[in-house]
Design goal:
0% of the residues lie in helices and 48% in strands. By secondary structure, the protein is mostly beta strands. The strands form 2 sheets. Strands 3, 4, 6, 7 and 8 form a 5-stranded antiparallel sheet that branches. Strands 2-1-9-5 form a 4-stranded antiparallel sheet, with no helix packed on it. The radius of gyration is 12 Å and the shape is globular. The two termini are 23 Å apart.
């Protein structure tokens, strides 16, 4: 999948992702797979050391008020799971992801 490159000199990986899972720009990210309401699976490049990193995701402008992001790192699969939620449950929403 081709997407615009992001400049992230101090991150192993980073991405700006639209609510539908489209990557606006990224570095070290292969693919974003939407898996249901507010549930995104992010495939990172093989050089990214998920086993030694602490990824951070943040809902970006356009996300419902009160949205929060939860992250699950799946090192063996080379994946990061991002859940965007509000008090009412999962919500498809744009977010930023950084993998230091």
């Amino acid at each position: 999948m081709s997407h615009p490159s992001a400049i992230a000199p101090y991150a192993q990986a980073a991405a700006v992702v639209k609510a539908d899972g489209t990557i606006l720009r990224a570095h070290g990210i292969q693919q974003v797979i939407p898996k249901g309401s507010g549930n995104y699976w992010i495939k990172v490049d093989s050089k990214v050391r998920l086993d030694r990193s602490v990824p951070v995701a943040t809902p970006s402008p356009g996300a419902p008020w009160g949205s929060g992001a939860l992250i699950e790192v799946l090192s063996a699969e080379g994946m990061i799971r991002v859940l965007i939620q509000t008090i009412n449950g999962g919500n498809n929403a744009p977010f930023h992801l950084v993998v230091p």
